[in-house]
Specification:
The protein is of the alpha/beta class and 292 residues long. The protein folds into three domains: 3-81, Winged helix-like DNA-binding domain superfamily/Winged helix DNA-binding domain (Arc Repressor Mutant, subunit A), CATH 1.10.10; 89-151 and 262-291, D-Maltodextrin-Binding Protein, domain 2, CATH 3.40.190.10; 162-259, Periplasmic binding protein-like II (D-Maltodextrin-Binding Protein, domain 2), CATH 3.40.190. It has eleven helices and eleven strands. It has helices spanning 3-15, 18-25, 29-43, 59-81, 103-113, 126-134, 177-183, 194-206, 219-227, 241-245, 274-291, and strands spanning 48-49, 56-57, 88-94, 117-123, 140-144, 154-168, 187-189, 214-216, 233-236, 249-252, 259-267. The strands form three sheets. Strands 3, 4, 5, 6, 9, 10 and 11 form a seven-stranded mixed beta sheet that branches. Helix 1 packs across helix 3 (29-43), helix 1 (3-15) crosses helix 4 and helix 2 packs across helix 3 (29-43). Residues 1-58 form the HTH lysR-type domain.
Length: 292
Amino acid sequence: MKFEFFITLDSILRNGSFAGAAEDMGLSASAVSLQVKRLEEYLGQPLFDRSGRTSKPTPLARELTENVRAALDAVEAARTRQTIALTGRVVLGTIRSLQPTMIPHVLREINRRHPELSVRVIQGDSVELLDQLKAGRLDGAALIRPTSGGSSRLYWEDLTEQPFVFVAPPDSEGESIAGLVRRYNWLQFDTSLTSGRVAATYMRRVAPSMTPKFELESIEAVLAMVSSGLGVSIIPQARGAMVDAYPVRQISLGKNAPTRQIAFACRGADFDNRRVSALRDAFKLSYEAIAD
């Protein structure tokens, strides 16, 4: 019987629901339910009374949690003590737009907290990164979380939600989106990528008869062209180094703007791996620092 099943059971009781445990542990609701089912099969007894509208823990569930709590606390204390310096190397995959914006912050944080840990950073689109992660070629990845929520085989840590925005040349003040579309060429973000397809779909709603003049493979390239006055586009909201290098006018698409969820993912079995945890924590701290 896997020890993590007892950790999940403890999380359910602490958070008061399966959904709360799923959010606490970065698992899907179905993965939490499956772990409880496996634990019940192993024990040969139910751990939750499911006769009502909500599942209530049985006395056995509470007894088990109380009995293993000391072990859970001891394991967590040992894991977080981290008296031994992290060494070795981890391989991190990221989507392209994060490399000039977030990765400098993340690597700076890792270097500060774990100076003996080496990180190899590779680039790819989200689908490629997920395939490499599942195949064991990556230790972790920062990517766009699928709208379905993502594979339950992986652990997910949501980092930030990015709205899509309309971008126009910096000297285009005072014009509406409709006016800007009539005045400038349409620059399309790569439609082989999910974000590019989202942008193209939204643009067809704004200007159904508009066709792209140029199609570009990266957000940086789109920003550079827009900043130079060559056209307008729709991209995920940009910040930091990219807009410092390529100033543009970013116009909100309103409350119905599409968004993309940036998340950190690793294999479920690596959730407690200290090197992978170092990557995950560095991303969380970096995004929190920027938000502040």
